[in-house]
Write a structure and sequence with these properties.
Distance between the termini of chain B: 25 Å
Oligomer: heterodimer
Distance between the termini of chain A: 57 Å
CATH topology of the largest domain in chain B: Glutaconate Coenzyme A-transferase
Number of domains of chain A: 3
Largest sheet of chain B: 8 strands, mixed
Shape of chain A: elongated
Strand order of the largest sheet of chain B: 19-18-17-16-20-23-27-28
Number of helices of chain B: 14
CATH superfamily of the largest domain in chain A: Phosphoenolpyruvate-binding domains
Structural class of chain B: alpha/beta
Largest sheet of chain A: 8 strands, parallel, barrel
Radius of gyration of chain A: 23 Å
Radius of gyration of chain B: 22 Å
Strand order of the largest sheet of chain A: 5-6-7-8-9-10-11-12
Helix content of chain B: 10-25%
CATH topology of the largest domain in chain A: TIM Barrel
Number of strands of chain A: 14
Largest interface: A-B, 40 and 32 residues
Strand content of chain A: 15-25%
Structural class of chain A: alpha/beta
Chain lengths: 400, 514
């Protein structure tokens, strides 16, 4: 092994694990208050080491410097450091419970969180986001990626997420395949593929997922894909991307990279073509479309306006970079009472027409054609899904 | 002996005999208050003395006597250190300090304890002094901690006799009328020591600004005051808002604040006339702000809001969201400024606010209150005094008084701090009994005291995440391992008084760990 391997950091909520070569295994723990914390931390370290190398193959000193880190963070940092030092040691497969999600589950909000920042990841499941999307790509510096994917795996296993859980991996050519192999152990509902530019990109990821699912004994095809379209080429190929594979459940737009790629300034108008293209491509393929994030977390008015625009264009949801943005997205993408009333009327009229064998339906003198009926049905389906679920993640766990 | 909460309490603590806590409102008194000293004066008397030493000399302060202070300058206080330094220079020993609260800025008192100038402390200790005495054997007698109302009561009942009260004032006249509202360095109300001034054998006003007669508002009055001393500095108002008064930015804490405000909105008290306690701490500030937004949206006009006064409360008053601010201490410069100009921003003293032995407390008129906690337990008891390692690090403040009075007391606390779980089987120290706590709000949901089934119904109706406290505890415990547990010896570091003068718990010396 190299002389010294480090995983983690000395940021609050994290811990820094250093593995140095030695003749036999030794563990050192440093923490603010050893009286209160040392024994608990040692327990976690010992269990992790036992899971990693039952035969005591780890001949090294493992030093843990804790800054108020939770159990799963310690386990992840120990695993990452030890496996970097001893690459032949296989990954831990922690216990995980995950209820599968439906392909058209509500995805009004997808809340991003940086995959290597324990402090921001704590409680990320508590803010009511439909989807939590833990990121291994842009928010993680290259040197931290190996530790980040291990942390994300442990996080996803340790927390009982009430949300749909996604991981944004790196492009396959830049470590994405390693990301898939690691995080599949935590059975995320889906994997987001950044910079998707062609059908081949999606198919290649689908194949990686199939291999990984098989390797860990997960049901084949149980992991959704969210291609993120964020380049000129991606926008022009949006239709084939959306239709590339049955795993694709939603196509997302990434405006920051897109504007950079085409040399645009970010305005509503400059993004209109890409947005509309993505919505049309997704809907043609029968999947959802999700809009880009709104970058100014302090601008509630701007966020609400952009979310409304996205809803008007046909998007089903939008990205959030801060928990505080989630309520505004839900307000924009939840069908209003008026929309629901209208949808109920349309569906009822259609059912009535079918019984009577009438082809055309009219409500209030206006013709209702097939797309209108489909939209009404979609709104009712979404409302139905939402009513069975909880606005607040822990609500309803206790009944009256 | 065991008190009503099952806490083991010694029959005597130091030289005092102990009455055990029997219930939040079990104690009834009907005797007489302690007498106040008689004083007289003839026209033309001069009260102004040239220095603290001269005043100390004039008061006849001797070894073993008791001196009192208020904490309205909080971290910015300059008077306590100056007075005790002067006592030390004059060779005084064995003094008993009776402050309303001590802060980090009073860390140098540790040296005065070491040298024997100070041998006893009765009062809230925030930070270094508490940490020091927690080592055990540092004071001649265990400390006594009281709530704001409890301290007032203890003076009136004669439980504590003050020899000399030193009263920091940002403005005073030469005749002893003094206030914290005006002057170059205002700190907000100094009414905490109105009772000190009336009951102390001698009262000394310490000010940095002598105004023409009469200095007003008349918080401290000439009839009670023996001497006036002018010093360069009494306190730094900039440091009043230190620490606990910044709005939180943490999503988890904002979620707690949001849920706490939602709980009030879902309660039967959310209607015109709603009166509540805001309080300090990032979460309480945010909860107050969210509640104000909800009141504005629902077009509800509240009754009174109780401080420590803050900018947010002043804004609520200006927007017409509440009719009155009742303010016993100011927590930021905007609240201080408002006190001087707005008749609806009313100065309150702790007797009015919270005196158990009286015919009325302002806290009893509260509908709702947001309070913090260091630890809570499955019986809803709250600890704000000791850290989980057993060290005494915080005072009681108004925690007991407000919780006892408000119809709906909401404790806001994260379920985990670092690796420290906040919900325990048993709190390290009971500050406030579960009997007067209604709701505990964490970022993982709300736990409702079983005796408040009515509130639970309201919360479920509103779709709030109501959780069983055992379940909340288990969820947090799952993320950390069991803590090391301090093993307590027999030595009592401090007695925690309930607001009625009985002992609700004691802080003992940590002897080891298991």
């Amino acid at each position: 092994m190299p002389k010294e391997i480090v995983a983690g950091s000395d940021a609050k909520g994290d811990c820094c694990v250093t593995v140095t070569a030695a003749k036999a295994l030794a563990v050192a723990v440093a923490t603010d208050d050893p009286n209160l914390f040392e024994r608990g931390i040692r327990e976690v370290v010992d269990e992790t080491l036992a899971a990693l190398a039952p035969q005591g193959r780890v001949k090294a000193t493992v030093s843990v410097a804790d800054k108020g880190s939770l159990n799963y963070v310690i386990a992840a940092r120990v695993e990452a450091a030890v496996r970097l030092a001893f690459p032949e040691i296989p990954a831990i497969a922690p216990k995980v419970r995950r209820r599968p999600s439906e392909k058209d589950a509500p995805r009004r909000s997808r809340l991003y969180a940086p995959g290597n920042n324990p402090r921001i990841l704590v409680g990320i499941e508590l803010h009511g986001a439909d989807c939590v999307l833990v990121d291994l790509e842009d928010s993680v510096p290259p040197a931290e990626k190996p530790a980040a994917r291990v942390l994300v795996k442990h996080l996803l296993c340790a927390i009982d997420f009430p949300n749909e859980v996604w991981v944004r991996i790196n492009p396959l050519s830049l470590g994405g395949a390693d990301d898939v192999r690691e995080v599949i152990l935590a059975r995320p509902h889906g994997v987001a593929l950044p910079k998707a530019e062609s059908k081949d990109d999606v198919v290649a990821l689908s194949k990686e997922l199939a291999k990984a699912e098989q390797a860990v004994g997960a049901p084949l095809g149980s992991t959704w894909i969210m291609p993120i379209v964020e380049t000129a080429k991606g926008v022009l190929h949006a239709a084939e991307i959306a239709d590339a594979d049955p795993r694709v459940a939603v196509v997302a737009f990434g405006a920051e990279d897109f504007t950079r790629d085409v040399g645009a300034r970010r305005t509503l108008e400059s993004l209109l073509f890409a947005r509309s293209m993505i919505v049309a491509a997704a809907k043609a393929a029968g999947v959802q479309a999700s809009d880009t994030v709104y970058a100014d977390v302090d601008d509630e008015v701007g966020l609400a306006a952009e979310a409304k625009l996205a809803r008007d264009l046909g998007f089903d949801g939008k990205g959030a970079i801060h928990p505080g943005q989630v309520p505004a997205l839900h307000a924009a993408f939840t069908p209003s009472e008026k929309e629901m009333d209208e949808a109920r009327k349309i569906v009822a009229a259609a059912e009535e027409a079918e019984v009577q064998g009438i082809g055309a339906i009219a409500i209030g003198g206006k013709m209702v054609d097939r797309p209108v009926l489909e939209r009404a049905r979609r709104a009712l389906r979404l409302a139905d899904r939402l009513s069975g679920r909880l606005t607040s993640p822990s609500a309803g766990k206790e009944s009256r | 002996m065991k008190n009503a909460l099952g806490r083991e309490i010694p029959k005597t603590i130091g030289s005092r005999s102990v009455e055990a806590y029997a219930g939040a409102f079990a104690k009834k008194r009907s005797g007489l208050k302690a007498p106040q000293p008689q004083k007289s004066c003839v026209p033309g008397e001069n009260k102004v003395l040239p220095s603290l030493e001269a005043a100390i000399e004039a008061t006849g302060l001797k070894d073993g006597m008791t001196i009192s202070f208020h904490h309205s300058f909080r971290e910015g206080d300059r008077v306590i250190n100056q007075v005790v330094d002067a006592c030390a220079r004059m060779g005084l020993k064995d003094l008993r300090l009776f402050p309303t609260a001590l802060f980090g800025t009073h860390a140098k008192l540790v040296d005065h304890i070491k040298s024997g100038v100070v041998s006893r402390i009765e009062g809230s200790m925030n930070g270094p002094v508490g940490a020091y005495i927690s080592q055990g054997g540092k004071l001649r007698e265990p400390a006594t901690l009281r709530s704001h109302g409890g301290r007032w009561r203890a003076i009136e009942s004669g439980d504590v006799a003050i020899d000399v009260a030193f009263i920091a004032a940002s403005q005073a006249d030469a005749y002893g009328n003094a206030n914290g509202i005006n002057g170059r360095t205002p700190c907000g109300p100094i009414t905490f020591c109105m009772v000190d001034a009336q009951y102390a054998k001698k009262a000394v006003v310490v000010t940095n600004e002598l105004a023409p007669y009469p200095a007003y508002p008349l918080e401290i009055q000439q009839g009670w005051v023996d001497y006036v001393v002018v010093v360069d500095e009494v306190g730094d108002p900039e440091q009043i808002a230190s620490g606990t008064l910044e709005m939180t930015k943490s999503p988890a804490r904002l979620r707690i604040a949001r849920l706490a405000a939602d709980a009030v909105v879902a309660s039967p008290y959310f209607k015109d006339g709603l009166s509540f306690q805001g309080g300090a701490g990032g979460v309480s500030l945010a909860a107050t702000m969210y509640l104000a937004e909800a009141m504005e949206k629902a077009k509800i006009v509240g009754g009174f809001v109780m401080g420590g006064g803050t900018r947010i409360m002043v804004e609520m008053l200006h927007k017409g969201l509440v009719r009155t601010i009742l303010d016993g201490q100011a927590f930021d410069p905007i609240a201080v400024a408002s006190l001087g100009v707005d008749p609806a921003h009313v100065i309150m003293n702790p007797g009015l606010y919270a005196n158990y032995d009286s015919r009325g407390c302002a806290t009893y008129m509260l509908d709702a209150a947001f309070l913090g906690a260091t630890e809570v337990d499955l019986d809803f008891n709250v600890n704000v005094n000791t850290h989980s390692d057993g060290r005494l690090l915080h005072g009681i403040g108004g925690h007991q008084d407000v919780a006892a009075g408000a119809k709906m007391t909401v404790i806001t606390a994260p379920s985990i701090r670092g690796r420290l779980p906040v919900i325990l089987d048993r709190v390290t120290t009971v500050t406030t009994p579960g009997e007067v706590i209604d709701v505990i709000v964490t970022e993982r949901g709300l736990a409702v005291n079983p005796k408040r089934g009515d509130l639970k119904e309201c919360f479920l109706e509103a779709g709030l995440p109501v959780r069983d406290i055992v379940e909340l505890k288990a969820e947090a415990d799952g993320l950390v391992r069991p803590l090391g547990k301090p093993v307590f010896g027999d030595e009592v570091i401090a007695a925690i008084e309930w607001r009625d003068g009985t002992v609700i718990d004691v802080v003992r010396k940590v002897e080891g760990w298991q």
